[in-house]
Structure formats: structure tokens, C-alpha cells
TrEMBL record:
Organism: Shewanella inventionis
Enzyme Commission identifier(s): 5.3.1.9
Signal peptide: none
Known function: Catalyzes the reversible isomerization of glucose-6-phosphate to fructose-6-phosphate.
Annotated pathway: Carbohydrate biosynthesis; gluconeogenesis; Carbohydrate degradation; glycolysis; D-glyceraldehyde 3-phosphate and glycerone phosphate from D-glucose: step 2/4
Protein name: Glucose-6-phosphate isomerase
EC class name: isomerase
Family to which the UniProt record says this protein belongs: Belongs to the GPI family.
Superkingdom of origin: Bacteria
Catalytic site positions: E351, H382, K510
The keyword Isomerase is annotated on this UniProt entry: yes
Length: 545
């Protein structure tokens, strides 16, 4: 048994949460609830008043954070301590958005100058591609970028580029390939012109099967269009921490942008892995993105726990996961440009906190990371919101919305906002049997039928949600928003005493995948695995059922 579940605060929270009244009552009891339970930081506004909390709950949650030595753990990360203990690595994605004059030490050296040099190299490259100075093998400017990478080397560039669509440089388009399924790359290459296409291959390790295979296929395609081996340097660049492997693979040394072991894949969009973003939105906007994240870093390290946005959001998630039995958390973006964010936060949180042993190897006896999922509003309202309102699972929700649209059109944004706020209200207050019955008062149904229908219309309410607002979706507010969720994930991991920065489960999948690939290519049927795996491999080898 871990000491966490034996602590007095843990037990006090267990007792306390069962006595918290319905949120309707909490709002009736305290007219100041919104003012007291909202916080503004780095261009973001968080209303967390629609949660199953009162001041005692918050006090207990912050005690839990203090007992976990949260402040010490935060400073350990920021100063480069080796907190990823299973891979013996510092965790310094925050250094990627630090100020140029900061000194941050990893493995005995100040890493800020390298970060700045890489940003300068990116700036030079971005400028030359955007201006048309960078020419393809027939002397034409680049019109299309194909970004090849997977996991953090895909989701960050793709989702941030999508979110910053209004900032794209005219004349450049970007296509993202991640999956090893040939359909993905074949569909993306259709219609592209090799003379004007630039491939950015992103792989921290330079050893990921999908990315290597897709890059080789991209090279084959490029050469098949009439280009020669010497032309490759004008059309292929790589981002990696394994420069040796990239050069051995055939990448021109001048076309390699470095990154480092102290940056986790799912935290890497701030590094040169963000090159496709910078190519699309320009270096000034990329730096504004970094600046937004830096602002959130400063808030995270300096704000007291009770006003610290990432800490508040993390502790609320701990509350629901550990004391109310919630097993999933939904992210609902009320902005079409942010439609990819749930997938980004899904990798960030689930790859980080999907763990079941503590840092020192003890089995946890409490829930850790929830299932993260979601989508864009209002689409979800006509689909899975039904379960949020009336299902048996408790699913805390984050609603995210900019106050101003990049595309103001008639009443669209008013309607979008009213749906967003209306949903949080409905989740919180629900509908009682009496209210449902009253709504049926003018119907022609008899009393028995009315009672039956009313029963089906009851919504218990008391469903928690956060509402996150920003003036407008800009590179800066987006940077702050993503860093907010990074730190939220970190705080949860700190409470649960797990390593949020390794991913051994994912690594096993890679290993077994390679093993199966060998068996698929072997001369004889597979016989050494379990009967199901053998049979599936052999069916595949036959190519038909
Ligand atoms: O950048 P790489 O080394 O190709 O890895 C890609 C992704 O693979 C993972 O290790 C999981 O598959 C992620 O953490 C990482 O972002």
C-alpha cells in the first residue's frame, strides 16, 4: 500500500467529498462563487466554479499538493534535475521557450545557447523558403511541405499548424504523414509536384519504423518524378537528436536541425520539431507561440497554489479521478481551429500519466491518468453529450472558447458561445423530475404517460466542468494554453508519484511489432508464438481468408 492513500489528507478528502452538496445548492449558498472560483493568467481565463467543490475541498486539495512537495518538484524540473529516473534524463522542454539570457544547466552545460542557435538556424531556413530564395532542383520555389513524423513528432506540428491557420504564409501549404499505412503517404503525394515539394522528416530518435519507412517511400517517389540523388539535399531536411543516424541515412548534414534528449517527444513542438509550424506561420509567430508558453511557465513557477491555473486544473482532475471514480476527462473546443486539440492533449496526458508504478517501483493503489478524449463543439452536442448529461459515468469536461472569432460572420459566434455556456449550465444544474413534469403540463398525455416521460427527461446535473476563455486564438494564447495542459499533466504525475516522462508501454509495442514483421517475412509459417498470434500472422502470409 502506498503512503499516499494512508495520508490523513487523502482520508479527509474521501470523507469530505461524500458530503459535498449538489452544485445547485453550492451556487445558491454563495453568490460570490464565480468571483471566488475563477482565475486569469497569461491571456487565459478559467472559470472553475462549476465543480463539486467548496473552500474546504480546495484547502484539502492544496494540502495534498503541498504534502507531495509540489513546489520542490516544479523547481526540480525547471532547473534540469534528472526527474525522468527510468531514462536518466532531465525534462527541459521549458528551456526551449526560455529567454535568451537565461542559464539552464543540463548534463553540466548551459543549454540555452544551443536552443538559440537552433532558433536562428530555423529562422534563416524559414525566411529562405517563405521568400522563395530556397529553390527546388529545377529552380522553382517551394509551395508544399510534407511533414513526416509520428507521435509528438506529428501531433504537435499538425495540431498547432491547424490552430494557427489564419497566420499561414500565402503560397505555402503543408501535408502531414504519420501512419505507416501506405494509403496515408500515397494520398498525400497525389497531386504534389516534386519540383516544389519540401519534405521535413521529424524523428527525435531517428529510429521510428513508421517515419523511416515513409521517408524512404517519399525519397523513392521524389526520384521517380525525375529528380536525381544530388537533388535530395534541396528537398529533404530532418529534425532529430540523432544527427549521426540521420547523416548515415543520407540526410545532408546542413539540412539537419538538432533537438535533445532532455526534450520528450510529446513536449517537443517548441523545438525544431515545430519547423513545419514555423514554415507556415513564420518565425515571428513561432516565437510568439514560445512566448505564450514561457508566460505560462512563469505563472506556474511563481503563482501561489491557490491562484495557479495548472495546479487548480490538475487538482480538480485528481479530485474526480481519485475521489469520485471518474475514469475519463473530455476536452470540448468551441473553435473549429482548435478541433485537433483533444487528440494533442490525449497523447500529452495519456502517454505521460498512463502509469501504474510509482517512481520507486511500488504498485499504485489509486487511479492515475484518465482516458482523455473530446472533440469540437457544437458537433459533440448532437452526439456524445447525451452520455455526459444522462449516462452513468462521471466525465469532467473542459470547455475551451475564444471570445472573438477569426471569422466573424452574422450571429455564428453568438450561437457558438451560447451553446458552450448553455452546455456547462445544463451539466451543472440538470433537470429535476418536478421541472420535467412542469414542462409537460400543456401536453395532451395522460398523467401516467407524463410521469414516464418526465422520468426520462430527468438529468441529475452536478456534472463538473471548467470553462477556459481567451480574447482571441493567437500564437501567444495558444502557447499559453498548451503549456497550461503540459503543467497540469506534470502536477497530476507529481501527486501520483509517477514518472510522467517515460513510455515503456509504447516501447514494448514497437519491439513486438518488429518481431512480428520478421515472422511475416520469414520462409515458413509462424509457430512459436501463442496460437492466436501464429494464426493471424499465417493468415496474413496467405493473403486471403
Ligand atoms: O520522434 P520519434 O523518436 O520518431 O518518436 C515518435 C514518437 O514515438 C513515441 O515514443 C511513442 O511511439 C512518442 O513519445 C514520440 O513522440
Amino acid at each position: 500500500m502506498t503512503t499516499l492513500t494512508q495520508s490523513a489528507t487523502w482520508k479527509a478528502l474521501q470523507a469530505h467529498t461524500s458530503q459535498i452538496p449538489h452544485m445547485r445548492t453550492l451556487f445558491d449558498q454563495n453568490p460570490q462563487r464565480f468571483e471566488q472560483m475563477s482565475v486569469k493568467a497569461c491571456g487565459l481565463f478559467l472559470d472553475y466554479s462549476k465543480n463539486r467543490i467548496n473552500s474546504d475541498t480546495l484547502e484539502l486539495l492544496f494540502s495534498l499538493a503541498n504534502e507531495a512537495n509540489l513546489s520542490e518538484k516544479i523547481s526540480a524540473m525547471f532547473k534540469g534535475d534528472v526527474i525522468n529516473n527510468t531514462e536518466q534524463r532531465s525534462v527541459l522542454h521549458t528551456a526551449l521557450r526560455s529567454k535568451a539570457d537565461q542559464v539552464i544547466i543540463a548534463e553540466g552545460a548551459n543549454i540555452v545557447p544551443e536552443v538559440q542557435q537552433t532558433l536562428a538556424k530555423m529562422a534563416e531556413f524559414v525566411e529562405s523558403v517563405q521568400s522563395g530564395q530556397w529553390k527546388g532542383y529545377t529552380g522553382k520555389a517551394i509551395t508544399d511541405v510534407v511533414s513526416i513524423g509520428i507521435g509528438g513528432s506529428f501531433l504537435g506540428p499538425k495540431i498547432v499548424s491547424q490552430a494557427l491557420r489564419p497566420y499561414w504564409h500565402a503560397g505555402l501549404n503543408c501535408h502531414f504523414v504519420a501512419n505507416v499505412d501506405a494509403t496515408s503517404i500515397c494520398e498525400k503525394l497525389k497531386g504534389l509536384n516534386a519540383e516544389t515539394t519540401l519534405f521535413v522528416m521529424s524523428s527525435k530518435s531517428f529510429g521510428t519504423q513508421e517515419t523511416l519507412t515513409n521517408t524512404l517511400s517519399a525519397k523513392d517517389w521524389f526520384l521517380a518524378q525525375g529528380a536525381t540523388q544530388q537533388d535530395i539535399a534541396k528537398h529533404f531536411v530532418a529534425v532529430t537528436s540523432n544527427v549521426t543516424k540521420a547523416t548515415e541515412f543520407g540526410m545532408d548534414a546542413n539540412n539537419i536541425f538538432p533537438m535533445w534528449d532532455w526534450v520528450g517527444g510529446r513536449y517537443s513542438l517548441w523545438s525544431a520539431i515545430g519547423l513545419p509550424i514555423a514554415l507556415l506561420v513564420g518565425m515571428d509567430n513561432f516565437k510568439a507561440l514560445l512566448d505564450g508558453a514561457h508566460q505560462m511557465d512563469e505563472h506556474f513557477v511563481s503563482a501561489p497554489l491557490a491562484q495557479n491555473m495548472p495546479v487548480i486544473m490538475a487538482m480538480l482532475s485528481v479530485l474526480y479521478g481519485n475521489f469520485h471514480g471518474a475514469q475519463s476527462h473530455v476536452i470540448l473546443t468551441y473553435d473549429h481551429y482548435l478541433r485537433g486539440l483533444p487528440a494533442y492533449f490525449q497523447q500529452l496526458d495519456m502517454e505521460s500519466n498512463g502509469k501504474s508504478v510509482t517512481l520507486n517501483g511500488t504498485d499504485v493503489d489509486y487511479s492515475t491518468g484518465p482516458v482523455i478524449w473530446g472533440g469540437e463543439g457544437t458537433n459533440g452536442q448532437h452526439a456524445y453529450h447525451q452520455l455526459l448529461h444522462q449516462g452513468t459515468a462521471l466525465i469532467p469536461a473542459d470547455f475551451i472558447m475564444p471570445l472573438q472569432s477569426h471569422n466573424p460572420l452574422g450571429e455564428h459566434h453568438d450561437q457558438l458561445a451560447s451553446n458552450c455556456f448553455g452546455q456547462t449550465q445544463a451539466l451543472m444544474q440538470g433537470r429535476t423530475f418536478e421541472e420535467a413534469l412542469a414542462e409537460l403540463s400543456n401536453s395532451k398525455l395522460d398523467e401516467q404517460q407524463k410521469a414516464l416521460i418526465a422520468k426520462h427527461k430527468v438529468m441529475s446535473g452536478n456534472k463538473p466542468s471548467n470553462t477556459l476563455l481567451m480574447d482571441k486564438l493567437t500564437p501567444t494564447t495558444l502557447g499559453a494554453l498548451i503549456a497550461l495542459y503540459e503543467h497540469r499533466t506534470f502536477v497530476q504525475g507529481a501527486i501520483w508519484q509517477i514518472n510522467s516522462f517515460d513510455q515503456w508501454g509504447v516501447e514494448l509495442g514497437k519491439q513486438l511489432g518488429n518481431d512480428v514483421l520478421e515472422r511475416i517475412g520469414a520462409d515458413q509459417d509462424a509457430t512459436e508464438l501463442d496460437s492466436s498470434s501464429n494464426a493471424l500472422i499465417n493468415l496474413y502470409r496467405q493473403g486471403k481468408l
